[in-house]
## 1
Amino acid sequence: MECALPPVELAAPDIEARCAGNTGIDHVTSFDSGVPGPHVLINALCHGNELCGAIAIDRLLRREIRPLRGRLTLCLANVAAFRRFTPDKPQASRCVIEDFNRLWSEEVLAGPRDSVELRRARALRPVYERADILLDLHSMSNAAEPLVLCGQTGRARALALALGFPRWVVADAGHAAGRRLIDFGAFAQPDAVAGEGGKVALLAECGQHWAAATAEVAFALSLMVLRHAGLIAAEVAAHLMPPLDVQPQPLAQQLVEVTDVVTASGDGFVFAGDFVDRQAMPRAGTVIGYDQGRPVRTPYDECILIMPSRKTVRGQTVVRLGRVVTRRDG
Ligand SMILES: [Zn+2]
């Protein structure tokens, strides 16, 4: 039985009005302050149906945000998929041919394959390579609290915790199906290799794809990163900051390390219950689902289920399993 889709509260922005670009690459806008400082890149629409990032970028451009130092680049990635977005079939426009956010390895980018997404990825590659700090804005199928994925570097972890929002910071190694943009090249270099000032990338899951609050989270996180990097003044960020209805107050930020990624070996993965995102399973050995009939169990007590997927496809991530390693009271 098909589940009812959540209501579409967000409207797709007109990306030709302000976001068409000024760099020679369509839908990439960049502003240089002329003053030394980091190059911050805010990226949206890796997935064409995730409107929040495009709305945040449109809003930054509408507000005429310009960097006080360094460079600010605003990029809309899978524009071809986004153009297929319609509110009556909002889930259909995630990609045209393949997932833009699974292409970010040298073998795939420099390999012989071709697709709409690969062509766009190859065109955008130098844009991503020039950035020092990447905020990649995404959203989720299920209604759940926002989270930030920081990959495996200590510097991305530190950035996520320095922002102080959202409450959930998740350190993980990505997906079996292909490398994500945040894991691309210098962003994923080990801290010891990257050294002081190494490039850093965060992927924000801002909330449910089409919920009004999700766009506010995307805009707020953009402001937080720009303020943290010194590209905008604290007063400007405070003035523009949308009210965020976050619970609990004060915010206790926690870092969760993903220990296991459950990948469907066939199309027959079935969850053993109606689990919600970030649900903690108290006991080790609890069966959470069946992969081709084989039980999948929690490996330890207080195991957290991260982003269980309603639609399971062979070779794709079904759920990540993690544990809380740091809890900081706000
Ligand atoms: Zn996404």
Note: The pocket of zinc ion is lined by residues 46-47, 50, 138 (CB under 6 Å).
## 2
Amino acid sequence: MGKETQSVVIVGGGVIGLACGYYLAGSGHRVTVIERDSSLLSGSSEGNAGMVVPSHFIPLAAPGVISQGLKWMLDPKSPFFLRPRLDFGLMRWLWLFYRHANTDHVKRSEGLLRDIGLESRRLHQELAESEGFELVQRGLLMLCQSEEGLEEEAEVAQAAQRLGLKATVFTKDRLKDFEPDCSVDALGGVWFEQDCHLNPMDFVTALRKGITARGGVFFEEDVVDFVREKDQVVGVRTSEANEHVADRIVLAGGVISTELARKLDLRLPMQGGKGYSLTLKEPRKALRLCSLLKEGRVAVTPMGKTLRVSGTMEICGTDTSLSPARLQGIIESFCRFYPDFEPDDFSGIDPWVGLRPCSPDGLPYIGTLSRQKRVIVATGHSMMGLSLAPVTGMLCEKLITGESSPINLSALSPERFH
Ligand SMILES: Cc1cc2nc3c(=O)[nH]c(=O)nc-3n(C[C@H](O)[C@H](O)[C@H](O)COP(=O)(O)OP(=O)(O)OC[C@H]3O[C@@H](n4cnc5c(N)ncnc54)[C@H](O)[C@@H]3O)c2cc1C
């Protein structure tokens, strides 16, 4: 398996599977994307906040996250929840998360997250130009309403600067410069100038068109097992008993990948991090920049003429039921920071729900399996799947073509918890 054209089956048509397909088809490989839910064809990806965030160099597993999470669990409107249940997968995930929520892990991961974040941003720019979708490059505001929040974020800004990222701490007098047409209630915050935003629907549509234009094909089928020759995986089998045999198989099924990985005797710990978004079609005021609201953990993204407000992280396995209290929590937080808006603005809006595929150390899984050389895993991007999709697609293409990778992938090995 060298540089020659190969056939590649990709399991999962979310933003990661599509980005892998795009780069593979672009270098001449014969791509088949299998997605079980045609109503989505972009998985948990199309309703997300659309932020491209090199500023996210701190993994989800970080100091303070557990104590904050425990406090939040007592409040039904809070942005975090974990439904306690007797489930071995959840117990193990929590144990691994606990082991990684420390400063050493953050220090070990920050350079890698910065590098893949910046490379992905560069690729997003390239894609936006070549595929013709809008990438708004005005940065992201981290807005804080409390002194304590502002202090914490100023420390993050310092760490970002140390890593060579652009981060500017600002006070409330600068808010009008950032948002001239809308009131913002905050003490100040941090402007992460290199962050961008886009409409995720435009992005996944561009990737799908790009795959089709380069000869790739899509199937709406549910992959239930692998096809083996002797003990080696050579393809996938679907619920309709169809077999798709290929030189390479990319497992990009989001949080569901764990189930399929089990059939390969691979332990791929993951939990769904449930979140919601609500999109105002005709917002009262126009915003220029996307923002994260520190105390509410809410994301706000202008998308063309519309405005998307999203949030919550409910560690929930694969359950996609809605929590009205947490939705209300998102709306109230947003209206507190942007007082021109009222909770009634959201009446009648259908919420979107998505599952972030969360690994216990907050790093994605990207790599070839040592015992199944044809299988590549690309998942576990948690809250950064859209942001890191292009770099993941590019890295997957390099793994398949056999070219050296610009990024050291050892920390991202899908076998690191085996
Ligand atoms: C509220 C919210 C806001 C977010 N905001 C951002 C943001 O601003 N920026 C950012 O970078 N990220 C954001 N994210 C995270 C991002 O959406 C995810 O990281 C990303 O969608 C993960 O993509 P994926 O392709 O790995 O998984 P998915 O999108 O879940 O796609 C996996 C696909 O595989 C399919 N599949 C699974 N198993 C099988 C099978 N056996 N056979 C066939 N098909 C299968 C599924 O149906 C699914 O469509 C947000 C997430 C949420 C919930």
Note: The longest strand covers residues 271-280.
